[in-house]
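Structure ticket #2291
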Amino acid sequence: MEIRVDDLSGKEIQDLLHQHLANMYEISPPESVHALDITALQHPNVTVWSVWIDGEIAGCGALKQIGPGHGEIKSMRTSENFLRRGVAANLLAYILQEARRRKYSRLSLETGAEPEFEAARKLYQRFGFDTCSPFGDYVEDPNSVFYSRALQLFSPAV
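Resolution: structure written out below.
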């Protein structure tokens, strides 16, 4: 499994992100879809990673800086052919490590409240995320669940 920064120029990542956005609109009402399109993911405050297994795109995820020391996880998606193979867990661990490297003290995310998002909610809870109030520009929404977790910054021993 290879995780790499993606410039979003490849057909594989574009197809996966289009599929992700279309699926979000199938599941949630339009006003409750907070997934970013490719243009928004190309903003300088967003880093996107793609996950590759044997030359095939297996998933993607992004980290958006939303304030000093505060990041938001965006666009987590696993390709259909790679579900239940640890793609999301490995990518989430990688993003947490990157957030610590950037010295973020908090990492937050929004995901759906619908049954289709249950696996995602369980994953975030397993990684220490707790439900929270809306953050950033979000507002209360019965179709959204908000999560956050503090990040411990480890300094090397002197």
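Closing remark: The first strand starts at residue 2 and ends at 5.
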